[in-house]
Amino acid sequence: MRPLYTIQELANTLRLQPGTVRNKLSRGEDLPRSVRVGRRRLFPEDAVEAWLQAQEARHEAAPSPDNQAAAGGPKPIGRPRRPSTVPVPARGSRHRKTRSTKHRSHSPAQIALFGKELE
After folding, report:
1. Tens-place pLDDT, residues 33-76
2. Exposure string over 65-76, b if 16+ CB within 10 A, otherwise e
3. Exposed (0-12), middle (13-18) or buried (19+): which is 21, by Cβ within 10 Å?
4. Among candidates 3, 1, 2, 25, which has minimal Cα distance to 11?
5. CA torsion sign, 75 to 81 to 85 to 90?
6. 3-state class of 24 per DSSP?
7. Beta sheet of 4-5, edge-to-edge order
8. What pLDDT sits at residue 32?
9. Residue 91 reports pLDDT greater than 60
10. What are the DSSP E strand ranges found in 23-114?
11. Which architecture does CATH list for 4-62?
12. Percent of all residues in the chain with a pLDDT value above 90, rounded to a whole number
């Protein structure tokens, strides 16, 4: 009979919390092949070893940080920024923007009432 890992033993082997292993199982994330026995989820030792070797091979095939920087750098994290060509208003300005009197024109009724453009 081949040895089987419980969720607790698999978590200890992978240095994860048992809850993390359960979450990964429920989300269908990549974990070793498992077998349900009653209410328990058991992982065959050979499946765990094969999965770990596949993880190591995947890690070795991934570009190293040095190669990744040369190939355009890592994927940016967070919300995309505005392009630098667009002027960004200063934050925290409490002054209210008022209209300039130079650019304001008066209505025809005001001109008729007062007879000339107001200054």
Report:
1. 999 999 999 999 999 999 999 999 988 887 665 555 555 666 77
2. eeeeeeeeeeee
3. buried
4. 25
5. negative
6. helix
7. 4-5, 40-44, 35-37
8. 93
9. yes
10. 35-37, 40-44
11. Orthogonal Bundle (1.10)
12. 41
